[in-house]
Write a sequence for this structure.
């Protein structure tokens, strides 16, 4: 079934696992079997695991309740990560043992990336570009796919359009800035604090403002006098809310309001 096997006779691994849902005290280092690899899966020797804010919700059983999943314990968290391929299933094409890869494995029934090894579907795995470290790539999948789905699937962003990215120095936001630029859009970025502004400027946004102290509305009007085409807004529990557009006036028709308001997607807590 496999093009290669784990070195020698290793059949167990260390993992941070739960025996039941609950607080952080439920996370314990355990010795567990290395996951079996199906014909369309790969086995990753994990070198880094992404840690997401949603891991707490999952650890407390939130996703299991929300999606009606009957959890199997020991339960290993970790929705994304990176490492080296240790084995590939016999139906897997384009990947081979030894490849540096990063992967997505949200609610993986075979266990997440808080372990020495993770078995995931080959379709959810990509090689790591030479320009990225394993740590950089391993922390990217969930946030990057969220940003891309927002820009491409939901906003249908097109080359030459203007887009505001609110929360541009955050996890999803800083990736959205880079993806939007690659899509050919003009990016108006709202970052948090001087360090956030400095980060987003390095990412080559067309305009960057500090959401803590700058006049966002005035800067947006200067950037796009006829109105922004789209907006991707992210915010956390401490953000104090999100930017709001002024209400439409009675004299405006639907087409005028649509042009001024554009398309918007909001993620928050």
């Amino acid at each position: 079934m496999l093009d290669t096997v784990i070195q020698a006779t290793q059949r167990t691994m260390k993992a941070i696992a739960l025996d039941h849902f609950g607080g952080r005290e439920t996370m314990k280092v355990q010795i567990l079997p290395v996951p079996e690899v199906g014909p369309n899966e790969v086995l990753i020797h994990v070198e880094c695991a992404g840690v997401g804010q949603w891991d707490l919700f999952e650890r407390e059983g939130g996703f299991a309740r929300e999606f009606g999943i009957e959890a199997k314990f020991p339960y290993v968290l970790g929705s994304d990560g990176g490492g080296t391929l240790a084995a590939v299933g016999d139906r897997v094409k384009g990947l081979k043992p030894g490849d540096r890869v990063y992967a997505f494995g949200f609610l993986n029934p075979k266990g997440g990336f808080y372990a020495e090894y993770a078995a995931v579907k080959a379709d959810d795995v990509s090689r790591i570009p030479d320009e990225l470290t394993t740590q950089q790539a391993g922390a990217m999948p969930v946030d990057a796919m969220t940003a891309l789905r927002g820009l491409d699937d939901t906003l249908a962003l097109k080359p030459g359009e203007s887009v505001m990215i609110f929360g541009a120095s955050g996890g999803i936001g800083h990736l959205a800035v880079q993806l939007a630029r690659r899509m050919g859009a003009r990016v108006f970025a709202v970052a948090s604090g001087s360090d956030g502004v400095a980060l987003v400027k390095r990412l080559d946004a067309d305009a960057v403002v500090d959401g803590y102290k700058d006049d966002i509305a005035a800067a947006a009007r200067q950037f796009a006098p006829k109105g922004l085409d789209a907006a991707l807004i992210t915010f956390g529990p401490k953000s104090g809310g999100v930017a709001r557009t002024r209400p439409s006036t009675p004299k405006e028709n639907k087409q005028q309001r649509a042009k001024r308001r554009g398309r918007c997607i909001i993620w928050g807590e």
